[in-house]
Structures are given as structure tokens and as C-alpha cells.
Design a protein that fits this description.
CATH class of the largest domain in chain B: Alpha Beta
Strand content of chain A: 15-25%
Distance between the termini of chain B: 55 Å
Helix content of chain B: 25-40%
Distance between the termini of chain A: 41 Å
Structural class of chain A: alpha+beta
Strand order of the largest sheet of chain A: 1-2-3
Largest interface: A-B, 22 and 21 residues
Largest sheet of chain A: 3 strands, antiparallel
Oligomer: heterodimer
Structural class of chain B: alpha/beta
Number of strands of chain A: 3
Radius of gyration of chain B: 23 Å
Number of domains of chain A: 1
CATH class of chain A: Alpha Beta
CATH topology of the largest domain in chain B: Aspartate Aminotransferase, domain 2
Number of helices of chain A: 6
Radius of gyration of chain A: 14 Å
CATH topology of chain A: Sufe protein. Chain: A
Number of domains of chain B: 2
Strand content of chain B: 15-25%
Shape of chain A: globular
Number of helices of chain B: 14
CATH architecture of the largest domain in chain B: 3-Layer(aba) Sandwich
């Protein structure tokens, strides 16, 4: 596997221009996650309106994989009901751990993260923001 | 190894040890020649990339003689030590104790009884924190540490401080990566019972003035533990000269096997201490109700020790002494300065640690590239460095970064490997450039 396969263009694009990334006011932070092994740090907020996720935003510092996966996650969540979101998160985490395969339609641009599965030390980078989203839903009580 | 065809019967006598025809000692110091003693350094990885191993502060590679002695030990010498009254048992015991004597001489210890085999630096420090600290520390007593400690010289003291009511005090790290020695002297005016500090920072490469720090601590009535994991491998270290009470180091960072390390302790302190682990080997007399302890060093070596590891470490010490510890120190420092020079030519690279006296470990950050992405990217060019918090999270906080990248050299590294490092970092910078 070449380094370009791990860091595909679409992943680098999300890293360089993360979507829904903006400095959060302390008061709106729902989840504050750190990966102590590499020092990655992500803060996340989310809103639910009429039973559906309306908005996900995050800030923080991290490697290309963690920021890109957070960016992709933030694009996926809006429009889903909390239960749908939890299923998506569980599927994605299982996919990254190599416990489950997902078809291309479900994956979409997340397929760009598939290469991470070959690097067990980096799987945590790719799942951190998704775990954070799961916690955010819990915090919101939905 | 043996070259028998499949039809011949298996040999009844264990195969004789491999003859490791090493280059070390065959002429003046020449890293290029010594590399031949380390088969792993000739590996190509990720296809056709020659390995540039620059992660020596994490663990060093092993020369053929160390690898071979492990093989030979298990094929021709294996037995339990200090108990088995038969040919192999005596052989194994003798070689195990010979290894201890080699290490005793290597670190200038007055007696082999003061050399305790452990699993490594972490266990060595835990022995002291637990076996000395739990019994000796009282509420309000103070332990002086520094802001540049590896977690292994921090967490054991946190635990024992919680249990005993002792307090931890920290010598701050100055901007150039050296310790604030004036603050250290002020801290020693308290109720200090133990000063525990690293000889060389695994992150900054700073060589601390441990001899002077030891004298100051002793004058204040405290014991001294020196974490020598990053110093014993690459320079002369004498416990007699330092006059420290404890010295901890690991075999695998000095050409030896993993899972073996050393705790040196001053005899009169070790004699007063209760054991750390208990069970077999470390007892003198056991009844159902009570036990008495074996003499030093067995009092601190419960269970069957890592015999092959200790013997392997002894062979590693032989190798290091043939290269010469002063030679290694000077070469590592020169190569580290060469690395810094190359890295500084890259815009956006920041070096951490500017101590006047330094080791071969060079930590840095590359603007816009997370250390893990950098390590992963340059690995594809065959270059092995370390990225992360390097088991020093409080120091990362002091440096204001979540993680760093670290290249650490040893006597078998070459300038051209550092040229490759610099080139690969340039490529990585381009690849991960923000806003492109």
C-alpha cells in the first residue's frame, strides 16, 4: 500500500478544508475528546430539531485522518434521527475495526478512510470524532 | 546454523553457537563498518527503501552477538538458576552471575550485590517508589522530580505520594530545555526525602548535571534516584562518580534484549528496604506463618529471572565497551547537531531543546503536519522516527504542543540517513500543505 492510498485526495481535501469546523464558544461545547496517545483534541457541538440532527460543528487539533474523519462525520449527521445516527456510527466504527464491511453506497466518500484499516495504530484517529458524536447525542438526551 | 539435509537424523548434541564474526574492535571507529554487525540495518522496507532507523531512544537494534547468544543459551545452556544442581543449572547460574559482574563493572558499582535485574527502567523505579517509598515516606515529606520526566519516573511517585501523604515538587524546565537549577536548590530547602530525576531527557536530549544535583540533594538529606535509561546506553556512567543512591536503566535501549533492565542501589539503602515482589528465589527461610528474605541481590529478584536476557545484556555491554562509551557519546552528539542543522534549513521546522550538552535525541515539529502524519508519511521512504507525546505529557504541555516528532541517532547511524530524513520531511510538508 502506498502512502497516497492512505492519504487520498478526498481525505486531504477534508483535512485542508474541514467542513463545519469553526472555533466553538466554551458554553456550547457538548463533548471534549482527547486521544492521549497522540494528543489529538476535538470539541464538538450538535443540535437536534424536530427529532432530527440539525447541525454538527467542531473545532480542535489533530492529524489529517482525525480531522478529515470529523469533517466527513459532520456532513453525514444532519438530517438523521438520533437512532439513525447511532446506527451509522456503530456501522462506521465496526467498519474501521475491520469487523464489518459496508457497501460503496453506504460508504460514499468515507471509502477514502478505508486505507486506515490497515494501520491499527491509526484507527483511533479515524473513530474519535464519531465516538464524540455518540456521546453528544447522549448528552442531549435524545 | 546447521546445514543438515532432511534425510540425516537430528543431532544429539545441541548445535554449537553461531560464530558471529563481528566487525567491532577490528579497527578504528567506523560506523559504516559496524553496521555490518547489525543485520537488521540492511533491511529494505516498503519494497526497495533502505531502512533508516532513527528511533534509537525508543529502542536500539541488536548486534549479531547479542542475537546469537540468546539462541545459543536456549540450545546449549538453558536451566533455572540458583537452584538446579546439575550441569546445565550450574552453567546457567554462572553465566547469569557473570553478566551481573559485567554490568557492575560497566556502571562502576562497588559490589555485584548492588546490581538487581529487573524488567527495565520502569520496573526499577517502581521497586524504589514502592519498596522504599511506602515504608519510608510520611505525610508532609517531599519528593522532588522535574518537569521533564518520562511517565515512568512520575507515575510511580504520584501513586506512592497518594498512599503516604507525601508531596511532589517539580523543578521547572527553562525555555532552552535545561532545568531551573536555582529553583531546584530552593525546592531542596523543604522536607525533601527523595530527589528523582532523569540524566537525559528522552524528548529534549538535555544532559542534566546529575552529579551536582545529587550532591545538592544529599546535602539536603535526601536520597537520589537517577533515571539513566537515556544515558547509560551512550556515555560513560559511573554510580561511584555520580554518588547516587539508585540508578535505573533498560537493556533494550543499549543493544540488549527487551524485558531485562537494571536497578543499581546503594548497599546500605537496599539492605534496609523490604522486598518489592515476593515468592520464590527471594526468600531465605519460609514457614507457613512467616518468611525471611534472601541476601542481596536475590531479595529483589523474586521468581525465575530473565536469564537469557541478562546474559544477552552482558554481551551487549561487551559490544559497547569495544566501541567505547566516549566514542559513542561524541559521535551521537555530533550526529544530533548535524540533524538539527539539516532540519533547521526547512522552513516551518521548530526544534525543541537547546541545551549546551545533548544526546542523540532531537525532537521537532513541522508546521502544518501532525507528527503522526509525518511519521506515517516518511515511513514510506523507509525512515523510522517516533511521533507522539513520547511518554512525557507534562513536558508536551510545557512546550505548548500536543505531540512532537523525534529522530534519535546511535553510533551506527550515518549523516546520509539524516539527509534522507530532511528530504522526506520536505516532501511531507508539500503533501500536507494547508490551503493548497
Amino acid at each position: 500500500m502506498e502512502v497516497d492510498d492512505l492519504y487520498q485526495d478526498i481525505l486531504l481535501d477534508h483535512f485542508k478544508h474541514p467542513r463545519h469546523f469553526q472555533p466553538l464558544a466554551d458554553g456550547e461545547v457538548l463533548v471534549d475528546e482527547e486521544n492521549p496517545t497522540c494528543g489529538d483534541h476535538i470539541r464538538l457541538t450538535a443540535r437536534v430539531e424536530n427529532g432530527r440532527i440539525a447541525d454538527v460543528r467542531f473545532d480542535g487539533k489533530g492529524c489529517a485522518i482525525s480531522l478529515a474523519s470529523a469533517s466527513m462525520m459532520s456532513e453525514r449527521m444532519p438530517g438523521l434521527t438520533p437512532d439513525e445516527a447511532r446506527r451509522r456510527i456503530a456501522d462506521y466504527v465496526a467498519f474501521m475495526r475491520g469487523e464489518k464491511e459496508l457497501d460503496e453506497g453506504t460508504l460514499g466518500d468515507l471509502a477514502a478512510l478505508a486505507g486506515v484499516r490497515q494501520f491499527p495504530l491509526r484507527v483511533k484517529c479515524a473513530t474519535m470524532s464519531w465516538h464524540a458524536m455518540d456521546k453528544a447525542l447522549k448528552k442531549l438526551g435524545v | 546454523m546447521s546445514n543438515t539435509s532432511s534425510s540425516s537424523p537430528p543431532p544429539l548434541v545441541p548445535p554449537v553457537a553461531c560464530v558471529c564474526n563481528e566487525q567491532v574492535g577490528a579497527g578504528p571507529f567506523d560506523p559504516r563498518r559496524l553496521r555490518q554487525d547489525f543485520p537488521i540495518l540492511a533491511l529494505t522496507v516498503h519494497g526497495d527503501k533502505t531502512l533508516a532507523y532513527l528511533d534509537n531512544a525508543a529502542t536500539t537494534q541488536k548486534p549479531a552477538s547479542v542475537v546469537c547468544v540468546l539462541c545459543e543459551y536456549y540450545q546449549a545452556c538453558n536451566a533455572n538458576v540458583h537452584r538446579s544442581i546439575h550441569y546445565l543449572g550450574e552453567q546457567a547460574t554462572q553465566r547469569f552471575e557473570e553478566a551481573r559482574k559485567k554490568i557492575q563493572r560497566f556502571i562502576g558499582a562497588p559490589s555485584e550485590r548492588s546490581v538487581i535485574f529487573t524488567r527495565g527502567t520502569t520496573e526499577s523505579i517502581n521497586v524504589v517508589a514502592s519498596a522504599w517509598g511506602r515504608r519510608s515516606l510520611k505525610p508532609g515529606d517531599e519528593i522532588v522530580l522535574t518537569g521533564m520526566e518520562h511517565h515512568s519516573n512520575l507515575v510511580p511517585w504520584q501513586l506512592v505520594a497518594k498512599e503516604t501523604g507525601a508531596r511532589l515538587k517539580f523543578v521547572p524546565v527553562l525555555d532552552d530545555g535545561t532545568l531551573d537549577l536555582e529553583a531546584y536548590e530552593r525546592l531542596l530547602k523543604g522536607r525533601v526525602r527523595m530527589a528523582a530525576f532523569t540524566h537525559i531527557s528522552n524528548v529534549l536530549g538535555t544532559v542534566n548535571p546529575v552529579k551536582r544535583m545529587t550532591a545538592l540533594a544529599h546535602a539536603a538529606g535526601a536520597l537520589v534516584l537517577v533515571d539513566a535509561a537515556q544515558s547509560v546506553p551512550n556515555r560513560p556512567v559511573s554510580v561511584t562518580d555520580l554518588d547516587c543512591d539508585f540508578l535505573a536503566f533498560s537493556g533494550h535501549k543499549m543493544l540488549g534484549p527487551t524485558g531485562i533492565g537494571v536497578l543499581y542501589g546503594r548497599l546500605e539503602v537496599l539492605e534496609r528496604m523490604e522486598p518489592f515482589l515476593t515468592g520464590g528465589e527471594m526468600i531465605s527461610r519460609v514457614t507457613l506463618e512467616d518468611s525471611t528474605w534472601a541476601d542481596l541481590p536475590q531479595k529483589f529478584e523474586a521468581g525465575t529471572p530473565h536469564v537469557s536476557g541478562a546474559i544477552g545484556l552482558g554481551v551487549a555491554v561487551d559490544y559497547l565497551q569495544r566501541v567505547g562509551m566516549e566514542t559513542i557519546r561524541d559521535y551521537d552528539e555530533r550526529l544530533a547537531r548535524y540533524a538539527i542543522g539539516r532540519l533547521e534549513q526547512i522552513p516551518g521546522v521548530r526544534i525543541f531543546g537547546r541545551a549546551p550538552e545533548r544526546s542523540g535525541a532531537v525532537s521537532f515539529e513541522v508546521e502544518g503536519v501532525h507528527p503522526h502524519d509525518l511519521a506515517q508519511f516518511i515511513d514510506r521512504d523507509g525512515i523510522a522516527i517516533r511521533a507522539g507525546h513520547l511518554c512525557a505529557q507534562p513536558l508536551m504541555k510545557r512546550l505548548g504542543v500536543p505531540a512532537v516528532s523525534r529522530a534519535s541517532v546511535y553510533f551506527y547511524n550515518l549523516e546520509e540517513e539524516l539527509d534522507r530524513l530532511a528530504q522526506s520531511i520536505l516532501k511531507a510538508k508539500e503533501f500536507f500543505r494547508h490551503g493548497s
